[in-house]
Sequence to fold (719 residues):
Amino acid sequence: MKLKSFSGGLHPPDSKEYSAHKPIERCPLPEELIIPAAQHIGAPADICVAVGDQVKKGQVIANANGFVSVPIHASTSGEVIAVEPRLHPMGRELPAVVIKPDGLDQWHESLRQNDPEQLDVDSLKNLIRDAGIVGMGGATFPTHVKLSPPEEKTIDTLILNGVECEPFLTADHRLMLEESERIIDGINILRKVLGIDQAIIGIEVNKPDAIEKLTRDCAAHNIQVQPLKVRYPQGAEKQLINACTGRQVPSGGLPMDCGVVVQNVGTAAAISDAVRLGRPLVERIATITGPGIVEPKNLRITIGTPLQYLVDQCGGLNGEPAKIIMGGPMMGQTQLSLDVPAIRGTSGVLVFREEDLPKMPAGPCIRCGRCIGVCPIHLQPTTIAAYARLEMIDAAENYNALDCIECGCCTYICPATLPLVQSIRHAKGGIMAKRRKI
Amino acid sequence: MLAAVLSIGGIGLVAAATLGLAAKKFAVEVDPRELAILEVLPGVNCGACGLPGCSGYAKGVAEGTIAPNLCTPGGSETVEAIADILGIEAITIEPQVAIVACQGDNRKATNKYRYLGLQDCNAAQKLADGPKTCPGGCLGLGSCERACPFGAIEMTAENLAVINREKCTGCEKCVAVCPRQVIKMVPLKATVHVLCNSHDKGALIRKYCQIGCIGCHICKKTVPEAYVVENFLAFADYEHIENAAAAIEKCPTKCIRDFSTGYPEGSSFPPATVPVKHPAA
Ligand code: SF4
Ligand code: SF4
Ligand code: SF4
Ligand code: SF4
Fold:
């Protein structure tokens, strides 16, 4: 049987063997938790606690700031010891609440368990928003916004992203293997909110055990498990929709334009906790891995734990770190130091040493066309990047620079090691600035 | 054959006659002063006057809708010439020149990470606010060099922008493009400048830059009227600059520079102005 997939893309060495077989382990609480107010796409939350306050686990410490925003919660009980700018994974100092855990890890009294069967759609959505649920794949887009499509869009399919196409990461893989009941419960809630029946979980065939387990567990729930060919960036929304349903999201459009809502399996699990247990998003699963880590692991981490502490739980550093990445190696963000905290979008922490990094300096484009061949959006990365370098923003716009999903395939494949994605992103910034001016 | 020659020739004649007539009938009256002004403008279309090109500016000046002294590249000569054409009194302009208020190149200042990306200051600035540890220092990736219409900026081999005061016309294109606001416009006649753009405290600056202003007030104590120290950063007061140079020797980090004499004792400048090669498109 020919496996489903999308066109374009590539298959980098997946390097998942470091951690794929490691069961999820709970990471203990560190000395202090650094919880930034900006952990999602959209307006940062407004901090509403002060130094000296005693907080309980799950208590709101920063209020949502508008519709595309979510509240931030204390991830354990303890004392607020500082409210100040701290180094954020974005690379600059941003407002954060620093909590010294009291070791009791006590949930806030106001949190209530619910039966999703008894609740109407609006209260479910409110619970999801108030629990601070965002896309757990790393994009951190507030989930309640995705679940509120405008009237005129009809949604008929829910796709669950269990692809985890980024090399190295195995957190979703372990979650599907070990906690499928949370995922399935989350899917049932999502289906109720969207008022639809059809749900598909897309999983790449390099996780046969997860496919088998979920196929077995989902049988009773009318959820389809769709095995997919291993191909990066299959976990990108538009590619996943294309792979699972054959539908195409129009240029500049959203998944809802072709009747689909996509959620990560981790998000589904978090939704189950938020609704059934009334527990906000204060922990997640992340893969701490890479050749620079002594003993790679899948950890259940408390939001706000400094990366250094996570690395220490994994046997520490194996040699001098030369590059630290939060997220996957293709789309993750390089970090300035291990002092930054893990946040809601931290799907992994990768550590590489000097000898693991490529050395080739960027040279001129040799016009091999490989970047064009791998681009899943069928753009011409080399052309857009050249226009970006020359500041020819209009020309870059005509070549549809804004459709680039920044998957990094072109940069990965380029034999001249040109920073193509960065150039395209530069052009996108220019186009957006120009549009704002008009 | 003959028919072809005649018909093509005929079409040509008719078209020429029509065009000739149209040019007469629809001729646009151009103010002769506008043409004369365009003649005396430098013609580099740099945009310093606020209009996209010299011809637009010439038109505006002739119509009296825009001030006649906005062409900084042309300097006072141009202003006088325009005043002559318009028959008005010349309003002199103080010639301005750009300076890069930073000497922290790769030898003198540290970077917080190794940057291997697009050789463009604005692109680099978007990654954790740029690789240079100093929040105000020159990134040295040459965005200003490429923006300067007069070729007045060169990048040193150690990644620092250096402005040629002879070539700079004060058009401010570089000021607009620099993401770190490290290029400042100053009066051409002022030659003494504090070349630092960081308001961080001295102790912090010492950690990341050997040639930054630490706000120690020594310059101000030496020549009180010539310097102001604001927020841990000294500035020369261009109104009272006569004796400013006396402080150069005293400055512990040698960040004050007199452009009329050369680089101070103990500094490793002037930097070699070997142009940096950028990866081509
Ligand atoms: S151009 Fe954009 S979408 Fe295409 S391969 Fe490069 S990063 Fe991916
Ligand atoms: S892959 Fe690199 S070298 Fe090849 S065409 Fe694209 S930009 Fe040029
Ligand atoms: S002066 Fe500004 S634009 Fe010029 S190289 Fe330095 S940082 Fe870049
Ligand atoms: S150095 Fe700056 S102000 Fe001077 S001519 Fe060049 S762009 Fe204009």
Summary: Chain A touches chain B through 23 residues (CB under 8 Å).
